[in-house]
Structure formats: C-alpha cells, structure tokens
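Researcher: For the annotation table, I need structure tokens for Cupredoxin family protein. Please keep the output clean. Sequence:
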Amino acid sequence: MKHPFIAAALALFSLPVLADSSHGFAFGEPAPAAKATRTVEVVLKDISFEPKSLQVKAGETVRFVLINQGQLPHEFNLGDKAMHVEHQKQMIAMQGKLFTAGMNHEGMDHNQMAHGEHGHAGGNTVLLQPGQRGELTWTFRTSAPIEFACNVPGHYQAGMVGPLTIE
C-alpha cells in the first residue's frame, strides 16, 4: 500500500508547471523567504484547507508555511481556474505513466521532468506527504482572480480549493 503513495508523490513532483518560469505568472512570481513581509500558516487536511480563503495585497511578498495534517499527500498550488484544470489533467496523465512504468520508472526522463517543460519550475506548487511541512514564498503582482488548490486527482473536485484575493 505504501508504494502507490510513493509513486503518486513522484508523479506529482514531475508534472508540468503551466507557465514559463522565465516569464513568471500574471499574478506574480516566487520569491526568497527573506523577502517576505508576512507569514501565513496554511493547514492541509483531508479534504480542506485552513484558512478557507486568503487575502494579500498587490506588491506584497508572503511566506506560506504549509502543514499537511491529512492522511493523504496534498498539494498547495497557486493559479487561476484554467491553470488548475490543466494541471489536474497533466497530473492524471503523468500518474498513469508512472504506474505503468513500475517502481523503477523505466523509460522516464526525470532530468527533463524536473528541470524542463515537465517540472514544477514555476515555483507555484508544493507537494506534501502526510505529516510533512513545507514553504512557498510568493510576490503578488496585480489583482487577479486566483485560487489555492490541491490538484491531487479528485481533491479539487472534493472541495480542496479556496479563493485568494489580491487587493
């Protein structure tokens, strides 16, 4: 039973970012933690976030401290609805490839996936195993309708998504 979780975690780390990291995202870009002007703790549960919504100011750099208190792997991903829909499709496709390749991951180019077009190089996503902590620091540029979500297959649809308002 542990092997599917490991395989799923590896699949999640290997998925497309949905943006060219050299250009960032319309709503902002990753930043070093030292630049943060505020820290916000977000708890990932099965199947919800606490808090349920987030508010930031345009120009603000926020350090998100993420704690997975759930029993499943969860993801904290910043993006608009369309980005989440695409990310979910890619996660499902990648998960299938990983499971069919077996635990030794034959035929998978992890270097390309980790650093090329199939990596989380955009810095807008953190995957956490149960009990794990992580961080994501982000500078928000302009007001935009975005969400924070878990795109592990089925989690977004089950309600693991919340609005992030940029004022």
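Researcher: And a one-line annotation?
Model: The first helix runs from residue 2 to 13.
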